[in-house]
Design brief:
five-stranded mixed β-sheet, 467 residues, alpha+beta, 49% helix, flat
Length: 467
């Protein structure tokens, strides 16, 4: 069965798709009598609430939509941003519906991406493997295994161009996500490279050196185990040594360069010593100014968020929203990511419990290094909290990514809490409950700060009021 985009075919918006009802479906079917039968069936599928939910998700998830439409060449990294399912009952519906269209498309897409060396997109595709059934996952594993076998055959025949996609770290990260054991094949490849390196031309050597670099980086970053056999980390590519004549010329050149640098350094030090104190003072002031700007910017940000919250209309017709990666940073251009942890056996971290019945964003405000994290409905995680940190909770439904990203429904912003003391031995937690987003603190002493409105008033008066 072939997938057709209802939005594309009918030239409608995502909001209009959501509003389609049985009467609309009847009218659409009458207007598309000459259309493809597969498209007609997709329109009929809108009568089923689960299928409709899946179709809406597909239309909002650009990478998945492009795969189903076989538009592989147009898939970009941005297509994967903010399109993650946090509700796994919804994911089950999407997977069930996509089974009618997706299997051969994913494998064809993978092949297209590999042939065009877009390994970064392959990684993002496999990062979303929870959208695929076990059959597709096994196909992807088989493809990678067969590719590595082809590399080994190619190297045996002295064809080192087969190494091309093995020079990308994303390739190994993809194998890791698939939990695919490829260490034996990598050792065979590395052995062939080592044995033939001295006889290779310059282009072939570049492939080999890039391969070793990518594998080594992958091992250190992703702890790829090779303990049963000789680790690739310990394999060294033999680089031919320069002749003694070349080495002597190089030493003379380096000696002259070193003497020149020393002379320039002494001259510059004498010339600039009288200005050092002034420059250091300017540098310190500029750093203070940067921190101050960050803090005031975030006071303005939270105030704007509250204004946005108060101005939301409940009868809007745009029902579109975006899915955010759980425990990620929903405001990457404004805040740093707040690191989270799965467990805390030593009571050094703080458990965050999201009992607000909505998705939640925690803002941690620290002088100059403010951070935030997105926590899904009914989920929990551990974060670092310290004395003098300030905490704000922002909850809601249907998070929309745009110029000023925000929750579109059932929104609340908590008061600001400053941590004045905390236990170093007891389990610590913060719990966000109810409609008012009040935070319950366990093993903390906190101070209630002035409201966001009052803080903004102070900021505004300092910045704009004339004496």
């Amino acid at each position: 069965m072939t997938y057709y985009s209802i939005i594309n075919e009918l030239n409608i918006s995502p909001g209009q798709l959501i509003l389609i009802n049985e009467d609309s479906i009847y009218k659409i079917l009458n207007s598309i009598k000459n259309k493809n039968e597969d498209f007609k069936q997709i329109v009929k599928d809108l009568k089923n609430p689960d299928y409709k939910e899946a179709i809406i998700y597909i239309e909002q998830t650009h990478w998945l939509k492009k795969i189903l439409l076989r538009q592989y060449e147009s898939i970009e990294s941005l297509d994967f941003e903010a399109n993650y399912i946090t509700d796994y009952s919804k994911l089950k519906k999407v997977k069930s519906y996509c089974e009618n269209f997706i299997e051969t498309n994913v494998i064809d897409c993978y092949t297209n991406l590999l042939n065009t060396n877009r390994l970064n997109i392959i990684f993002k595709l496999i990062e979303n493997k929870n959208h695929f059934d076990s059959t597709i996952i096994e196909h992807l594993k088989l493809n990678i295994s067969e590719e590595l076998n082809n590399v080994i055959k190619g190297l045996t025949n002295n064809n080192f161009s087969f190494l091309s996609y093995l020079t990308f770290e994303d390739y190994y990260q993809s194998a890791n996500l698939l939990e695919l054991k490829i260490e034996d094949k990598l050792i065979k490849i590395s052995t062939l490279c080592n044995n033939q390196y001295q006889q290779l031309d310059n282009n072939q050597k570049k492939y080999v050196e890039s391969f070793f670099k990518a594998v080594k980086s992958y091992q250190s970053s992703y702890n790829f185990e090779l303990k049963k056999t000789k680790p690739i980390n310990n394999i060294r590519v033999a680089i031919p040594q320069k002749s003694s004549h070349e080495n002597n010329d190089l030493k003379i050149a380096l000696g002259l360069l070193f003497t020149f640098i020393i002379g320039v350094t002494i001259f510059f030090t004498m010339f600039s010593s009288s200005k050092n104190n002034k420059k250091e003072a300017v540098l310190v002031e500029s750093k203070k100014e940067i921190k101050s700007k960050k803090l005031t910017n975030h006071i303005r940000f939270l105030y704007s968020l509250r204004i946005k919250n108060n101005s939301l209309s409940h009868d809007f017709q745009d029902f579109s929203y975006d899915y955010i990666v759980p425990n990620s940073n929903p405001y990457p251009k404004t805040f740093n990511a707040l690191k989270n942890y799965k467990q805390d056996s030593l009571h050094l971290k703080t458990l965050v419990l999201n009992n607000s019945k909505k998705d939640l964003i925690i803002f941690k405000l620290v002088d100059g290094i403010d951070e935030c994290i997105y926590i899904s409905k009914d989920e929990s995680t551990y974060i670092d909290l310290n004395k003098n940190d300030t905490i704000v909770a922002y909850s809601g439904k249907d998070f929309k990514v745009d110029k000023f990203s925000h929750f579109k429904r059932n929104t609340n912003i908590s008061p600001l809490y400053k941590i004045t003391d905390l236990s170093l031995t007891k389990p610590k937690s913060i719990e966000v409950n109810g409609s008012n987003n009040l935070i319950k603190f366990k093993a903390f002493t906190v101070e209630h700060l002035p409201s966001i409105n009052n803080l903004y008033t102070v900021y505004y008066n300092k910045k704009y009021r004339r004496n």
